[in-house]
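Priority: medium. Attachment 1 of 2:
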């Protein structure tokens, strides 16, 4: 029988490590031109929303193929479907339903960036935002670095207090709410910005030299969560999909800043084709746009592990 997983099946603490390792393989495949990852395809339903399709897979000894479809319709609940095939024998490996896989995959990409761009001895994290993406990004950071402490800030005091209590219990590290964005990132080794803010919540003056920053939230000319001066001071700027930064309907937030041409492909950094972190004092910046098709690779690894 075809294995079918739902959100409630994707709650094990070890799944983040599975996802990160699977994506490391996927990004190495991309560097070797073996990752299938075309741009998203939107099908519009006027006055209702879109169905959005992504296709992905890996070529090689054990080829994978699959797709994801999700919707943007109005409603309280949203879901997605991910289907995975073994491309060498046409076997349908399984189907994953729900929203959890997407958050896990996005967090794992952030974890890969932290693994390859943050200081190896990074111990403290500043988190801006207290939603689902902030949770999986912090879980990913704790998977790739031996963290001691994290501080979280979001506009709602109740949300950041609840986030701190939940993640402290889940990760076994000290997590405390902060009274401001600058307090949350003060002296942190890693900053995770996962907000919905359309205006910058931190600037270069808030960061110490040698800090690594992941930006997960808005990144267009219409709105962006990081000050453009952070890109100015970054020795390395990377993204998981340079093509996607150019394909968005709204221009990417770095377009026209003089820094857009400095963006490296995270896959090339992982593969050693492009230099990542240099000296300990280098500030590094990762702009997450979430490469289409990678959820198929994560789904396959999780289906194999459960």
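Attachment 2 of 2:
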């Amino acid at each position: 029988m075809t294995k079918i997983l739902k959100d409630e099946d994707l709650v094990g603490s070890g799944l983040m490590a599975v996802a990160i390792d699977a994506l490391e393989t996927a990004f190495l495949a991309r560097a070797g031109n073996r990752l299938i990852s075309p741009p998203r395809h939107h099908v519009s339903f006027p006055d209702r929303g879109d169905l959005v399709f992504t296709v992905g897979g890996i070529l090689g000894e054990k080829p994978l193929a699959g797709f994801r479809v999700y919707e943007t319709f109005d409603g309280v609940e949203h879901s997605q479907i991910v289907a995975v095939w073994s491309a060498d024998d046409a076997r349908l490996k399984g189907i994953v339903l729900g929203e959890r896989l997407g958050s896990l995959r996005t967090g794992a990409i952030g974890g890969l960036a932290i693994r390859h761009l943050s200081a190896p001895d990074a111990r403290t994290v500043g988190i801006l935002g207290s939603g689902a993406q902030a949770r999986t990004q912090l879980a990913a950071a704790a998977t790739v670095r031996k963290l001691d402490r994290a501080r979280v800030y979001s506009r709602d005091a109740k949300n950041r207090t609840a986030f701190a209590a939940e993640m402290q219990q889940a990760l076994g590290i000290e997590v405390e709410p902060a009274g401001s964005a600058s307090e949350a990132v003060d002296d942190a080794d890693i900053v995770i910005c996962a907000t919905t803010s359309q205006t910058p919540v931190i600037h270069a003056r808030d960061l110490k030299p040698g800090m690594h920053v992941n930006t997960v939230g808005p990144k267009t000319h219409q709105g962006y969560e990081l000050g453009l001066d952070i890109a100015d001071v970054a020795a390395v700027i990377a993204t998981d999909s340079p093509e996607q930064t150019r394909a968005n309907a709204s221009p990417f937030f770095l377009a026209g800043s003089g820094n857009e041409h400095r963006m490296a492909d995270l896959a090339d950094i992982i593969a050693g084709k492009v230099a990542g972190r240099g000296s300990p004092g280098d500030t590094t910046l990762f702009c997450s746009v979430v490469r289409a098709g990678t959820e198929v690779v994560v789904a396959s690894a999780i289906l194999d592990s459960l």
